[in-house]
Amino acid sequence: MPAPTVRILGIDPGLRVTGFGVIEKNGASLSYIASGCVKSGDADLADRLKTILAGLREIIGEHRPQQVALEKVFVNVNPASTLALGQARGTAICAAVDAGLPVSEYTALQVKQAVVGNGHAKKGQRPPQTPPTRLPAPFATRTAGRAWERSRRAGSA
User: Fold this and answer.
1) Which CATH number characterizes residue 132's domain?
2) What is the pTM of this model?
3) Range of 87's domain?
4) Which of 57, 94, 150, 157 could, after both became Cys, cross-link 69 (CB 3.0–4.6 A)?
5) Main-chain phi, psi angles of 30, to 5 degrees
6) What pLDDT, on the 0 to 100 scale, is given for residue 139?
7) For residues 58 and 76, which has the higher predicted lDDT (pLDDT)?
C-alpha cells in the first residue's frame, strides 16, 4: 500500500514579515507547492498580530496542510526582539491549532542539518539537489526547510 500524501506548512514567524512554505510528501518524494509571506507593516502590535493571524488562516484555507512546522524559540541578544518574535510565533501557533492542525517545532540547527547536512550552515545555503525547488526567496528556503524536517521526522516515526 503506498504511503499517503502529506501536505506540510512551514512557517517563519516575524512581526513585520511572516514567511511560509508548503511542500507535499508522497513516499520518499517531496514536491514544492507554494511559498510567500504575510506582511504586517508598521501598524501597532495588535493590528500586526491580527494581520498575521488572518493571513495564515487564509494560507491554511487555500493550501489545506495536514501538519505545520515552525522554529523553536531561541534567546536573541535583544530581549525586545525575542519577545516580538514570540508574539508572532504564538499567533502562528494559534492559527494552526485553530484549524485543528498538529504543530511540530524544530531548532534552526535541526532544520539546517536536515536541509544542508550541516547544522552550522549559513542562511540560504542549500545543496543543489534540495528537494523543494523553485524557492523564490531566502525565507522560503527556511520555511520549506522546516516542512522538510517535519516530513523527514514523520517518515521515521
Assistant:
1) 3.30.420.10
2) 0.77
3) 5-156
4) 150
5) -115, 135
6) 46
7) 58
The stretches of the chain forming alpha helices (DSSP H) are: 45-63, 79-98, 108-116, 138-156
Nearest to 8 by CA among 56, 63, 61, 85: 63
Q: Is the dihedral of CA 32, 9, 105, 89 positive or negative?
A: positive
Cα-based distances in Å from 157 to 151, 152, 153:
10, 9, 6
Q: Average pLDDT for residues 62-74, to the nearest whole number?
A: 88
Q: Which three cell numbers stand for residue 137?
A: 526567496
What is the rounded (10 degree) CA torsion for 39, 42, 48, 52? 10
